[in-house]
Design brief:
Order of helices and strands: EHEEEEEEEEEEEHE
Number of strands: 13
Helix content: under 10%
Radius of gyration: 16 Å
Strand content: over 45%
Low-confidence stretches: none
């Protein structure tokens, strides 16, 4: 299947992420990541996924906070020149390619993605993507509730995110997309798009 994947990472307070993760799941960095995909070309489906980096069950990877796919969910994508805008009732995000191209990011601590379910989460190993990435500027706004996180990148920059020591103990609550989206964006860390074929 032909995939065009759009990736956005932004920094969010790590103590608030810690308060949302289940017991035994360790937050690795103060990061939330949105993956958006166009699956199967223009006539295909739109997919969105929200994740945060964790260590759990002897592995290191991304904890899935939420995922949505059309047509089961009202998701759309519109491409105009270098810009691609994804729209959902709870999220608007626009990626604009800057013209810069580079290698796909090497994530040394990315074994794959954990998908929570009853009991131990389902684990899906990371895809090996070797296609070059096209860097993007990005603008996003969560809209589950007033005051949800929003952010805009700065001139296509890619910035690192480092672990922060615990400082504040927030009340524990379930890890839901609504709870994660309520954590303010401290800064956009980077965005890119990459095209590849899945399942071959």
């Amino acid at each position: 299947m032909e995939i065009q994947q759009f990736v956005l990472a932004y920094q969010a307070e790590q103590d608030r992420l810690r308060a949302l993760l289940p017991a035994g799941v360790e937050s690795l960095r103060p990061v939330l990541r949105i993956n958006a995909e166009l699956r199967g070309g223009p006539a295909g489906t739109v997919y969105l996924e929200l994740n945060t980096p964790v260590a759990a069950f002897g592995k290191r990877g991304w904890w899935n906070v939420g995922r949505w796919e059309s047509p089961a969910h009202p998701l759309t994508a519109r491409q105009e020149g270098a810009a691609t805008t994804f729209q959902a009732p709870f999220l608007t995000l626009t990626y604009t390619q800057t013209g810069a191209v580079g290698g796909c990011p090497a994530e040394k601590d990315n074994d794959g993605c954990f998908y929570p379910q009853e009991g131990e989460p389902r684990f899906v190993p990371a895809e090996a993507i070797t296609a070059p990435r096209a860097f993007c500027d990005v603008d996003f706004q969560w809209a589950f509730a007033p005051g949800d996180a929003q952010g805009r990148s700065q001139n296509g920059k890619t910035l690192p995110a480092f672990p922060t020591p615990p400082k504040v103990r927030y009340p524990r609550q379930p890890m839901t997309p609504q709870a994660a989206a309520a954590i303010p964006c401290q800064q956009v860390l980077g965005a890119y798009t990459v095209q590849f074929r899945r399942g071959e």
